[in-house]
Amino acid sequence: MGESTCHEAIEELQIPEFMKAIRYVEPKMFTLVTIPVPRPGANEVLIKVKSCGICGSDLHIHSGDLDTRMPVITGHETSGIVVKKGDTVSMFQLGNKVTADNSELCGHCYYCRLGKPLYCENFAAHGLHRKFESLAASSSWLKPSY
Ligand SMILES: [Zn+2]
Ligand SMILES: [Zn+2]
């Protein structure tokens, strides 16, 4: 590993105090805001986003024809690198390249225990229902390096 590559890797893991985000307060009403960088909970990872798609759902959020909890920060299809992890996270290491499921399932409600997680009573989708904070490690995956 060359010196510049090592330096870039260290810079990638530095976490600023604040970040910019697009936040919708109602359909068709969004602003660029500066917000604190989220702190991951015990079972969560913080991902520095390197790329983010614009999904068809984002267009529905914009137009107001999708059930969305406002205010919301959109952008739920992301990939990036793990820059911080909670105390109980063991399957990821800092610097891992990851992508994530855009939804979180509770794993303990009636439907989750029945093996029908898509009916989860506590279903929350990033960028729709859940304030976009850090991601549950259980909904993140390692992304192959290219
Ligand atoms: Zn989507
Ligand atoms: Zn559930």
TrEMBL record:
InterPro entries according to UniProt: ADH-like_N, ADH_Zn_CS, GroES-like_sf, Zn_alcohol_dh
Highest rank taxon of the organism: Eukaryota
Domain called Alcohol dehydrogenase-like N-terminal: residue spans: 41-132
Alphabetical keyword list: Metal-binding, Oxidoreductase, Zinc
Signal peptide: none
Keyword Metal-binding recorded: yes
Entries under Gene3D superfamilies matching the protein: Medium-chain alcohol dehydrogenases, catalytic domain
PANTHER family tied to this protein: L-THREONINE 3-DEHYDROGENASE
Name under which the protein is recorded: Alcohol dehydrogenase-like N-terminal domain-containing protein
